[in-house]
Design brief:
- This protein has 230 residues and is an all-alpha fold.
- The longest helix is centred in the first third of the chain and has 29 residues.
- 73% of the residues lie in helices and 0% in strands.
């Protein structure tokens, strides 16, 4: 990642987020048009999302780190692996890329390019689900980077596929994706008025994962040395 300048890293983040959202929204539209079975439609949305994450993280990870997610960018900024300025720019292009992804998906299916969602997603259960989804995602990334870096694309893709099914919110786990999905009035959408609760829950879950994993991934000798130095 250090071998690529900031403009290239920002382009990779924007491109990756755009293709991720285009996949989420586009596969949702396709699934909805092919079947009335809600469970089958969700499966048709889940598999492409997990698959595209494996692809995007593999090909763009070496350039930008393949965050595609403001919550993930926040975590790496808190870990001081990303400067505050770069983190802010990452988040801006992630949000912009996500919106472009929604527009692309709508254009491919001859729908209005932007269409505010009417799909209600709110309440304590949904917020808890998003906290859990983001917690698990960040924990997966941090542990994956620590123990099996080469497997991170598969770990993230498989985690998101699982989280689609064990969370009541279908695991947005990503503020940029949530914002982009508020602009599609299809099955993958979320009402704009429901965004604040989702985004707050995602950020809380991500920070909680950082706090736990920072302790969990520190070996005993490292912890003792840090305490002695402190």
């Amino acid at each position: 990642m250090q071998n690529f300048d900031l403009p290239r890293r920002l382009t990779a983040e924007a491109l990756g987020t755009a293709l991720l959202v285009a996949t989420v929204v586009g596969s949702g539209i396709m699934a909805e048009s092919l079947t009335r079975d809600v469970a089958l439609a969700l499966l048709g949305n889940t598999l492409p999302t997990g698959a595209i994450l494996v692809v995007l993280i593999t090909i763009l990870g070496p350039i930008s780190g393949a965050h595609f997610n403001p919550a993930v960018t926040l975590i790496f900024a808190l870990k001081r692996e990303l400067t505050p300025r770069d983190a802010l720019l990452y988040i801006v292009v992630q949000i912009a890329g996500g919106i472009v992804g929604t527009v692309m998906a709508h254009a491919m299916f001859a729908l209005p390019l932007l269409d505010a969602s009417l799909k209600m997603r709110t309440g304590g259960a949904q917020w808890l689900a998003e906290s859990v989804a983001a917690f698990g995602l960040v924990a997966t990334i941090l542990a994956g980077v620590r123990f099996e870096r080469a497997s991170v694309p598969w770990l993230v893709g498989l985690y998101i596929m699982a989280a689609y099914w064990f969370t009541s919110s279908t695991s947005f786990a990503n503020p940029a994706v949530a914002i982009a999905r508020s602009m599609t009035n299809t099955c993958s959408g979320i009402r704009p008025t429901d965004l604040p609760g989702f985004i707050a829950a995602e950020l809380c879950g991500a920070v909680a994962a950082l706090m736990l994993m920072s302790w969990l991934l520190r070996e005993g000798g490292q912890a003792a040395l840090k305490e002695a130095q402190g």
